[in-house]
Amino acid sequence: MARSHKTAARSAPGEARVAVAERDGWVEATLDRPAQGNRVNAAMGDELMALCERVEDDDSVRALAIRGAGASFCEGFEPDVDPNLVESLAAVTKPTVAILNGDARDEGLELAIAADIRIAMRGARFALTQPERGLIPRFGATQRLPRLCGIGNALRILLAGAEIDGAEAMRIGLATYLAANPRELARLRGEVAQAIMTRAPIAARLVKEAVRKGYDMTLDQGIRLEEDLYALLQTTADRAEGVRAFLEKRKPLFRGA
């Protein structure tokens, strides 16, 4: 069952790439362009989009995480990056995690907030500086950021140019977990991965669907969606295994079916 391998679409020394590591269904992509703050170029964007598609289609993959090489998470995108990149991550129905090992600015922050969970370093800095250049974000920040941290905080970051650190990100709800140092970041990453991987895959996807879709529904509509998804879950083998494991007082062996 266990499998571990590393792959990368590019291997030339010093060339920008997205390095991919996989272990037991946990896929972790590293933006590997540290000299440029891991700014995503067109080729890296295409690699990430292809990876999101593979994660979505591969039943052996349970979750996707993205991090940056070196001291930054991602300082932005080059102008030629495919405009569908961030939506490709947002469209993944499996759990997604942004490991914010360093600064995330502009499109890099937009990529991070499209993930389900963000683990942030206390000293990392987050900002959206597009209005300083006469632009507005175009990868979803104007919509996702208010949903994460409220309209007031979103406008403080967008209009007043507030650059916040990891502690402030945690306080306002932009970060989900906060690490004081790289060692704690690694520990939290491991704990989050372990927690996600012990959940039944289908149940995890349906929970994500209920939360994401229900956010824009009335309470009654959201509850009906939850009821429909719950009924759907009763037809799965994972649900039956969960019941058996509970009765037998053992850990369940979920198969994603």
Explained architecture:
The protein is of the alpha/beta class and 257 residues long. It folds into 2 domains: 194 residues, 2-enoyl-CoA Hydratase, Chain A, domain 1, CATH 3.90.226; 48 residues, Lyase 2-enoyl-coa Hydratase, Chain  A, domain 2 (Orthogonal Bundle), CATH 1.10.12. It contains 10 helices and 11 strands. A 7-stranded mixed sheet has the order 1-2-3-4-6-8-11, sandwiched between helices. The radius of gyration is 19 Å and the shape is globular.
The geometry reads as globular
Mean pLDDT, as a whole number?
90
Overall helicity: 40-55%
How many domain regions?
2
| Proportion of residues in β-strands | 15-25%
Helix tally equals 10
CATH topology of the largest domain: 2-enoyl-CoA Hydratase, Chain A, domain 1
Order of helices and strands: EEEHEEHEEHEEHHEHEHHHH
Radius of gyration: 19 Å
Low-confidence stretches: 1-13
Quickly name the level 1 CATH class of the largest domain. Answer: Alpha Beta
CATH architecture of the largest domain: Alpha-Beta Complex
* Estimated structural class: alpha/beta
Spatially, the strands of the biggest sheet line up as: 1-2-3-4-6-8-11
Distance between the termini: 16 Å
- Find the CATH superfamily of the largest domain: 2-enoyl-CoA Hydratase, Chain A, domain 1
Number of strands: 11
The biggest sheet amounts to: 7 strands, mixed
